[in-house]
Amino acid sequence: MTVTKKHYRVCNLCEAMCGLEIEHDGKQVISVKGDPEDPFSKGSLCPKGALIHKVHEDPDRLKVPLLKNDDGEWEEISWNESFDIIGGKINEIRAKHGNDAVALYLGNPTVHNLGMMLFSGEMRRSLKTKNFFSPTTMDQLPHHFIGYHVFGHALNMPIPDVDRTDYFIMFGANPIASNGSIMSGCGPVEKIKSIQGRGGKVILFDPRATETSRVVDEHHFILPGTDVFFLLGMLQLIQKNDWIQLGHLKSHVSGLEKIKNIAEEFTPDRVEALTGVPAPVLLRLTKEYVLQDRAVLYGRMGMSTQEHGGLCHWIASVLNILTNHFDREGGAMFPKPAVDVKRQKGWRLSHGRWHSRVRKLPEFDGELPVSVMAEEMLTEGKGQIRGLITFAGNPALSTPNAKRLEEALPKLDFMVSIDIFMNETTKHADIILPPPSHLEIDHYDLIFNHFAVSNNAKFSPQLFQPKEGQKYDWQIAKELTKRFSKLSKSKLSFPFRYLNPRQLLNLALLTGPYGKWSSPSRWFNGLSLNKVIASKHGINFGGMKPRVPEVLNTKDGKIQLAADVFLKGLEEVKLLLTELPEQRTINEFQLIGRRHLRSNNSWMHNVKGLVRGKNRCTAMMNTIDATTLGLEDAEIIVVQSSTGGIEIPVEITDNIMSGVISIPHGFGHGKKGTRLSVASDPNHAGVSVNDITDQNRLDKVTGNAAFSGQKVAVRKLSEVEKTP
Ligand SMILES: Nc1nc2c(c(=O)[nH]1)N[C@H]1C(S)=C(S)[C@@H](COP(=O)(O)OP(=O)(O)OC[C@H]3O[C@@H](n4cnc5c(=O)[nH]c(N)nc54)[C@H](O)[C@@H]3O)O[C@H]1N2
Ligand SMILES: Nc1nc2c(c(=O)[nH]1)N[C@H]1C(S)=C(S)[C@@H](COP(=O)(O)OP(=O)(O)OC[C@H]3O[C@@H](n4cnc5c(=O)[nH]c(N)nc54)[C@H](O)[C@@H]3O)O[C@H]1N2
Ligand code: SF4
Ligand SMILES: [Mo]
Question: What is the reported pTM?
Fold first, then answer.
């Protein structure tokens, strides 16, 4: 008779951090449910978490290192041999061409993995390269930017207190599909319903009527890339009517005078013309927001990855601060995580210490915009990237104009990928090193607890043993670091040389804000790893508490309302507005993205249970536009941009603004050479929208990729085929 057991852990597939209750027999998973006793997630779960074991069981998942031989065929090799080859090849490139000739891309799952979070930084340091990249620069860079320039540290990112707010305005976020981003908290539907249940209101601005628009109180269409004008319109009304109330922040802000008249030209009528949002809506919402005691403005991907992403996040924070909706319950607040990465790492923060070689774009916190990666490989000269390490990333599908990167990857002298699959990126590597699955590792969320709507600590022990001899992500990073360090004449930092992830985590918890060693009064009841492990379902320390001024790391210890980078950026935008808008032709559209609850960026389409049903890789288009173009539903269209074209079925709907089309990212699995079963599934392989996104479209202030609002031309495939 098989004995079934229960295992408790945190799902590390997205930012929500749902507690899982996994029933298993020691070898196989029997069921995955939401853990009702997890004090943070209270039983919530999504289809991805419910199928987390299908990634573990996926026959396509790699388990042994693979080397591409001279004939281009894959051979199994031993772990030690692969570490030595990689060390040799990478150091050879560095010795011959300099440290910058090797680039490192740390992909999205890095931040969802304890071992990688701890050890990838060591590897980064050992490489001493200026060519470091991650999805930060096509994602949340504006959040870090205001963290740094306004509050003094890139991780000082204000989080909306959704559990206690009564008035929640969202720009460009779709939490019902994404489960919340830079707002970790499970169960978005329940959260929205409970705001409504206490008499509150939720408002959403999005060019598409999304899954989230269906549960909020008000959804307003807004033209892509114009959110900043709406926010400036709110600021104009607040300043003109003298609705400013700084509350307890009065003695903690600087720059109030400098921002006094910055929004005066953004009158409601002008804002309506720029954004498509009726002037009365701006007037009413601004008043409601100001009058509500507990209100908050929040923006996510749609507001971050657009040409004015940095300015949007700046003005949104300025608004929350000026209206007494900041550092107070129900407003935007700073979490206090049990492991404070800021304190532990003593991060050196910077902006503009060096610039990319070709386009001269500045680094931020040691990393360059991912949009320059391909050109740094393809442009000859000193400092050209000739070697690449990708760790948990699929940039051949994820990055702007990834087609160009696909051209560049085969030309590299050497490439290594640390990944669980042979996919569109890793197939280009010379060596692939596969770490264990998500159920075979210990986990603690070091990063997303910094964005959590209430403070928590939960440890997830390893459930299953990996294949014998298989190395964990952190061991791979450590082995490679040792080899790269030889050339750099550096060493692993002291604790990383001797301690494993559990020991490092224990140290961080003990010395963290709730830790046993944080003060003598906590000596008997403070936090340690043992205490967290014993709690099984996790410990919740309650909601966010006011943290200003203690949390601020700025030079004068105050909130910087008027940092120069933003003031300058705003002046440039105002200049652009003096140019006459171009007339739109019927074929011209603005492109926006899309996420779906049952997929996860570029890598979970291989789970059959998630991709069941109709093809989700479609171009959504408004019924009126489709009629004008004579299109029928599911007809193939050609979407052409400045960088290329893709063929994709159109999905005709009323749920999108006229003049806008929406295409999801992360598809394009049909490309040859992968070992993914989805590659041969014509219904779900899809096409890659990043074959047509333009790497030159950036948020000027931050350097973040500007996916939203890119101009594209749409034609019927049959018409394009007719044209010689
Ligand atoms: N057009 C467009 N492009 C976008 C976006 C968009 O909205 N529109 N979104 C952007 C955003 S926000 C992000 S975050 C990026 C994501 O882009 P990437 O950083 O490329 O991340 P993923 O696409 O999630 O790919 C993750 C990779 O990690 C592997 N992996 C999964 N788990 C592990 C693990 O535990 N260890 C290791 N070693 N590997 C693992 C997977 O097999 C996969 O290859 O895409 C960006 N690209
Ligand atoms: N199921 C699932 N969950 C995920 C992911 C996933 O791939 N699948 N990815 C994870 C990652 S890496 C991230 S970064 C988060 C992202 O989390 P979210 O930001 O919540 O998710 P998105 O679906 O990207 O939502 C962006 C919304 O912005 C809208 N939008 C586009 N352009 C504009 C604009 O100019 N203005 C306004 N106001 N809106 C605009 C889009 O229509 C879209 O609905 O999700 C995470 N969670
Ligand atoms: S919402 Fe995110 S954390 Fe929760 S189960 Fe789904 S993928 Fe996992
Ligand atoms: Mo992301």
Answer: 0.97
